Amino acid sequence: MTEELIRSGGSSGLVAALFTHGIALPHMVAAAGARTGGSLGGRLGGTSSPGDDGLIERYVRPTLAGTMIGALAITEPDGGSDVAGIRTTARRDGDHYVVNGSKTYITSGHRADFVTTAVCTDFLGSGELTLLVIDKGSPGFTVGRRLEKLGWHCSDTAELSFVDVRVPVANRIGAENTGFLAIMQHFAAERLSLATHAYATAQRCVELAVRWCRDRETFGRPLASRQLIRHRLAEMHTRTEAARSYVHEVATRVAAGEPVVTEVAMAKNVAVAACDHVVDQALQLHGGFGYLRDAEVERHYRDARILGIGGGTTEIMNEIIAKGMGL
Amino acid sequence: MSIVDTPERRHLRELTRAFVTREVLPHLDDWERAGEVPRALHATPRSSACSASASPSRSAAAAVTCSTRSS
Predict the structure, then answer these.
(1) What global pTM score does this model have?
(2) pLDDT along chain A (327 residues), means of 10
């Protein structure tokens, strides 16, 4: 779906805006499923325990129906990709948690009706995390201004602030102190999703560049008739196909339940590298027109830049790969 | 059969392309300038998919599968 949305003329930013539920909901679905041991279909069947079943009814179903919008809040102003360094705290007070802290770079944070929020619930220093669903409008929960960005312009991004926000215990996802594992388990899906954004954006840009080079004539001949241009397009296409093929292979292995953390990191980096190369070359081939807002390729060039940053940077992926090599 | 190329996913691709052509392309430039997509758009793809599918719950499950498995 991500691939087709981008290839048919959408954009990475559109997918980010429209499919935030892909990162806001899976932890709830998994927690409800863990109680029953069911498959994904079984989890959606709603046969789980009262707490997590409540989250399925109150948040998952309306969000999938498109009547609610959710966001996922992990990153903090001081934290970057360091999930273990989360400083937003939740203190238990009767049947509520009291949440204090702030989050940033939150996709769909401006429009979200609820935010799946990573909070620190352990005060002994071991950095245990818990996921809480926090409603917009809760007293003390403030959504800051919409952050302006290089790309992904149709996807709103916000900074969130929590000051003594009271969150019912019923809004906790799974058991207390299981947040770190839940976040890590779903990073694989998020990273493969961003890898898909990357190779799909590259595919679209190859198509746009081929079309442009066939139609555009310089010095009396179409650009596509020149060997330099033909070889450049051939290399763009090759890198894109190699990335697509590898991402599909890793996605298939993830779906089969294989523990392929290193391969997921490599898939993201391979796809991002292909995309970075292709959007740059595609814009160059478009010449002056490529620099205009009217050119679709200009949007992809700007949108692509986040893909090596979000969901764990290229450098974080390289650390995972190096560890997987035993280094 | 590859998990990324099943009859259900091919059907999903067709629905997606039709959705983008009809609901996205005429407006995307405006949304880029506005800084967000309209809330109503979130309900549109589901209603399109549900109307074309025998089972709404199956469509919802497919949506989760696709966004979390990223194909």
Answers:
(1) 0.88
(2) 93 94 89 63 38 88 94 87 83 95 94 96 74 96 95 96 97 91 88 97 98 95 96 98 98 92 97 98 97 96 97 95 96
Residue-wise over A144-178: b if at least 16 C-beta within 10 A, else e?
A: eeeeebebbbbbbbbbbbbeebbbbeebbbbebeb
Architecture, CATH, for domain A184-324: Up-down Bundle (1.20)
The rounded distance, in Å, linking the Cα atoms of A67 and A72 is 17
**A221 burial type by CB count under 10 A (0-12 exposed, 13-18 middle, 19+ buried):** exposed
Nearest by Cα to A319 from A241, A243, A261: A261
Hey, of A12, A25, A143, A154, which one would you mutate to test binding to chain B, going by the most B CBs within 10 A of its CB?
Answer: A154
| Contact call for B20 and A4, based on CB within 8 A | yes
Q: How far is the C-alpha of A311 from the C-alpha of A264, rounded, in Å?
A: 12
Check CB contact under 8 Å for A248 and B34: no
Closest residue by Cα to residue A236 from A268, A269, A201: A201
Q: Is A187 helix (H, G, I), strand (E, B) or coil?
A: helix
A2/B67 CB distance under 8 A = yes
* Cα–Cα distance for residue pair A240/A244, rounded to 1 Å: 6
Please say whether the beta carbons of A240 and A282 come within 8 A: no
| Sign of the CA dihedral with A319 first, then A324, A325, and A326 last | positive
Please list every residue in chain A whose beta carbon sits closer than 8 Å to the beta carbon of residue B22: none
CATH topology of domain A2-177: Butyryl-CoA Dehydrogenase, subunit A; domain 2 (2.40.110)
Beta strand pairing call for A114-120 and A70-73:
parallel
Q: Where are the domains of chain A?
A: 2-177, 184-324
How many angstroms separate the CA atoms of A197 and A305, rounded? 11
Chain B contact set for A26 (CB, 8 A): 64, 68
Per DSSP, the three-state class of B64 is helix
